[in-house]
Design a protein that fits this description.
homodimer; alpha/beta; Aspartate Aminotransferase, domain 2; Aspartate Aminotransferase, domain 1; seven-stranded mixed sheet; 10 helices; 10 strands
Chain lengths: 389, 389
C-alpha cells in the first residue's frame, strides 16, 4: 500500500519496512565512518565521486556569506577543476589554480602564497588519477590550519557555529584502495570517496564533512542526508559500498606492497626494452598500482587501441575526458610547470602531444600479465616506429 | 591494467571493454527514448528524480542570460518546490508559486496570468505524489506555447539556437507507471522520470530534454551525458531501468484499469464503514493506484504506525519529508487554496492538522488486501475514537 514511496523500500518511510531499511543504511554509514575514523553523522552519501567533489566545493561556496575565493591545483580531476571554472564563470567564486612541479606534486608553499582574506576552500587531490602522484596532504592541511588560526572567525550564512576559513578538501577517490584514510591524521575537513574505484562497491559516492563545517546543499528537495543531499538514498548500493570499503581496508597494506613490487618490476622491464620512454610523475610518492609512461613521438591513444586489440585494457587519460579531442592536461602540466591552467594541447599535433599511457593494476593483476604487456608493447612499438620518428 | 578508470567497466574508456559497455548503455538510452517518443540524444541519465528535477530547473536558470523568472504550483514534490526556494534565496531566480484549487488541480489560467517577460520556465507535475491528482499538462503546455510565440527569441548564454522562453517542465515520476508518456503529445520540453517508482528499475533518474532547449550543467566534471550531467553513468542500473520501463509500458493500460476498479472498491468500502472521512484530491483526474484519506481529528502519522504494526505499509506524506515534524503541505494546500505557499501546519496541533493517509497500490495488490486493510483500519479507528474527538 506504499508503492508511491518506492517500488522497493524507502529508508525515509516511517512504517516497519522503512525502519528496517533505515537501520541497514545507518549501519553501513557507521562502517564507512569507522574506516575514516570519523563519526557516522559526518558521512554524506551521494551518487558518486563527481557529485561528492561538486558538493564539497559548491557547498562551501554557497554557505559563505561573501564572494568567496577558492584554491586548487592544475592536475585535479575534471570534477574539481571544471567545477572551479563553472563557479568562476557564474561569478559565484574567485578562483586560483596553482601549478604542480615537474614531478606532478604541488609545493605547499605555493598554495600558502595564494591564500587571501576571502579564501574559504583549498582543494587538493590525495592521489592523481592519471599519473598516481601522492600530494603532501598533511603538510597542506597544516598550512591551511595555520592560516585559519590567524584570521577572524567568519559566521556562515547558514548561521552555524564555525571555527573559520579556509577549509581543506581532498579528493581521495584514487587513494581509497591503498592509502591511509584517517581524516584526523590527514587533517582534512572534507574528503571524497567513490564506489566505482573499489572492487565490489556499488555506484555511490561519499563526502566526509567534519561536523562543524558549514555546507549548503546543491539540490533542493527532501530531508535526506541532513538536508545536505536530498533524494532517496541508493541504499542497496550503499550497503555494497560499505562492505567493499571494509574489505579493501583489510588487504590494503598487503596489496600495496605486492603492487609496488609489481610496478617496480614493470618499470624495470619497460626500461629493459629498446624503446625510449619517460615515466611520468614522481617515482617515490606515487600510488602502488600506477605506471604512466610517455613514448616520445608515439600517440598514446593509438597505443591504447593497439593494446586493446591484443586484450590489454589501459588508458591514455581520464575516461571522463575521453570524448575530447585534446590530449591529457595532466601530462601537459608536467611539461609546462609555469602555466596556471595548462593549455589543452591541440589534438592534431601528434609529435608534440603524445600524452601518456596509464597502466593501473588491481587485485587480479599478476607478474605474467606484466610480462605479456611488456612483450606486446615492444612488438607494437617496433611496428609503429616506422611511421612515427 | 585499467583499474583506475573503474573497478568494473567504464563506458567512457576507449578500449574494447569500454566500447562494449558504451554500446549497452546507448541501447538502453534508445529503449527509454522509444517509450517517450523522443530521440536518444534527448535522454539524459541522472542519479534519480531529485537530481532530474533539479537539473531541469537549475539548468534552465543557469542557461539564461538574464535574471530569470520561474513558475510552479504549491503541491509540487520537495525536489521542485525546495529548488525554487533555494534559487530565490540565492538570488539566482525570481519565483512564483501558483496555488492549486480545492480538488488539488491547478487552473491553467492562473499560470497564464503569472507569465512575465523574463519567465523562462513553468514546472508543473504530471501527477501528485501524495493525493494522486493529474494536472492538465496538455492544456498548460498549450498556454506556455501560445505565450512563447508572442515573445521575441532570447539567445541563451550558452550560445545555442533556441526558439524562445518560457519552457515547460513536468515531473512525471508518479505518472510513469500509468499515464501516457508521449512527450510530443504532452507538449513538454523537459520531463523527469525516476527508477525508484518503477518495479524492477534501477536507482537512476532520467531527464528528457527536447533537443534545442538550452540547459547548463549543475555539476562541473567530465564529458558524460553531453557534458550536461558529468560523472560516470551508472550503467548497470540504467540497463535495469530501461527494461523495467518497457515492461511497465506493456501492462500499463491493463494495470490502470485493474487498479482503478480496486481503488473505487476501496473508497466504496471505506465509505461503508462508520468512520467519518474525506477523500483528498479530485475523484476523476487521479492516478489509478492512489487513495488519500483524511480521518478528521485522527493524526495520520499515528494511523500509519498502527497500520504498520498490523503489516500494512502506507504513508502520511512524502517520505522525502518524513523527518519533519510538520504535517503534509499538500493536504494543507487543498484546505487553504488562496495561499501562495501554504504555511507548514505546526506539528503539535493535532486536531487541526491530521493530514491524510496515502494508500498507493501496485502490481501485487489484490482485492483481499483491500478487504484486510478496511477491516484493520475500522478496528484501529474504533480504538482511537475514544481519545480523539
Amino acid at each position: 500500500m506504499d508503492y508511491a514511496a518506492s517500488a522497493v523500500s524507502n529508508p525515509s518511510s516511517i512504517h516497519e519496512l522503512g525502519v528496517i531499511t533505515r537501520r541497514k543504511l545507518e549501519n553501513a554509514r557507521r562502517h564507512v565512518a569507522e574506516v575514516l575514523f570519523a563519526r557516522p553523522g559526518e558521512i554524506i552519501f551521494t551518487s558518486g565521486g563527481t557529485e561528492s567533489n561538486n558538493l564539497a566545493i559548491q557547498g562551501v561556496v554557497y554557505a559563505a556569506s561573501f564572494l568567496p575565493h577558492i584554491i586548487t591545483t592544475n592536475i585535479e580531476h575534471p570534477s574539481v577543476l571544471e567545477t572551479f571554472k563553472l563557479l568562476e564563470k557564474r561569478k559565484l567564486a574567485q578562483i586560483t589554480i596553482v601549478p604542480v612541479e615537474k614531478n606532478g606534486i604541488v609545493d605547499p608553499r605555493k598554495i600558502k602564497k595564494e591564500i587571501k582574506k576571502n579564501t574559504v576552500l583549498v582543494s587538493v587531490m590525495y592521489a592523481n588519477n592519471e599519473i598516481g602522484t601522492i600530494q603532501p596532504i598533511k603538510e597542506i592541511a597544516k598550512t591551511v590550519r595555520y592560516f585559519r588560526k590567524s584570521v577572524k572567525v567568519k559566521p556562515s550564512r547558514e548561521g552555524l557555529t564555525f571555527t573559520g576559513y579556509p577549509l581543506f578538501h581532498t579528493d581521495a577517490v584514487q587513494a581509497a584502495n591503498y592509502l591511509d584514510l584517517n581524516v584526523e591524521k590527514l587533517g582534512v575537513d572534507l574528503l571524497t570517496l567513490s564506489g566505482s574505484k573499489i572492487e565490489g562497491a556499488g555506484r555511490v559516492g561519499v563526502l566526509y564533512k567534519k561536523k562543524p563545517v558549514p555546507l549548503a546543499p546543491i539540490f533542493g528537495g527532501g530531508d535526506q542526508e541532513q538536508s545536505i543531499r536530498p533524494g532517496t538514498e541508493n541504499w542497496p548500493e550503499i550497503l555494497k559500498f560499505a562492505s567493499a570499503l571494509q574489505a579493501a581496508q583489510k588487504i590494503k597494506n598487503k596489496e600495496a606492497k605486492r603492487l609496488t613490487k609489481l610496478c617496480d618490476y614493470f618499470i624495470e622491464r619497460l626500461r629493459g626494452t629498446s624503446a625510449s620512454l619517460i615515466i611520468n610523475g614522481d617515482l617515490e610518492n606515487r600510488l602502488p598500482n600506477n605506471v604512466n609512461v610517455t613514448f616520445p613521438k608515439i600517440p598514446s591513444d593509438l597505443l591504447v587501441l593497439e593494446l586493446s586489440a591484443r586484450g590489454i585494457m589501459c588508458s591514455s587519460k581520464s575516461a571522463c575526458e575521453s570524448s575530447r579531442e585534446e590530449g591529457s592536461y595532466v601530462i601537459e602540466a608536467l611539461r609546462n610547470t609555469s602555466a596556471r591552467q595548462p593549455a589543452r594541447p591541440a589534438g592534431g599535433d601528434l609529435a608534440e602531444n603524445v600524452g601518456g599511457v596509464r597502466f593501473s593494476l588491481g587485485r587480479d593483476t599478476q607478474k605474467q600479465d606484466i610480462d605479456y604487456t611488456v612483450k606486446v608493447l615492444a612488438q607494437i612499438l617496433q611496428k609503429l616506429k616506422k611511421w612515427y620518428n
